[in-house]
Amino acid sequence: MYHQKRLDRLLINGACLELSAAISVTHLARHPSDHAPLKISFVSRLDNKPRPFRFLNVWMTKPELLEVIRNAWVQEVNGSPFRVLCSKLLATRRAIQAWNKHSFGNIFKAVQKAEVAVQLVEEVADQDDTEESQVALRKA
Predict the structure, then answer these.
(1) 29-40 residue pLDDT tens
(2) CA–CA separation, 13 vs 137, rounded Å?
(3) Calpha distance 87→79 (Å, rounded)
């Protein structure tokens, strides 16, 4: 049985420190590699503005997405062409966000929860290198 040591480190210079009010480093799950990737977070958003809309590829796994987009896009909007475009994009974004919440829930929290579960199982596997702990690690 061998014990793993955390050797992954982050080195930044003073100029990088000045870019952000807070920098945090998180060791992500190692499995299946023996190296832990580092997640570096630069906290600079001090306002409560909404995050920009991001299209998630997982949405394409559900065929009803196209219908959600089509229904939002065909809504009648009056005004200049630019206003019509902006209104349709906003309506489409809101429709996709509502559909996402209903169809997938909070994907980011689910991923975060799964990552924590893998890290916990990794810690157990580090202390108890048995076949059962390796199976649990692969399953997680």
Answers:
(1) 776 776 777 888
(2) 36
(3) 10
Count CB neighbours of 27 within 10 A.
14
Please tell me the pTM assigned to this model: 0.52
Phi, psi of 10 (to 5 degrees): -125, 135
Give residue 1's pLDDT: 47
> What separation in angstroms does the CA of 47 have from each of 43, 44, 50, 51?
11, 9, 9, 11
For the segment 45-61, the average pLDDT, to the nearest whole number, is: 79
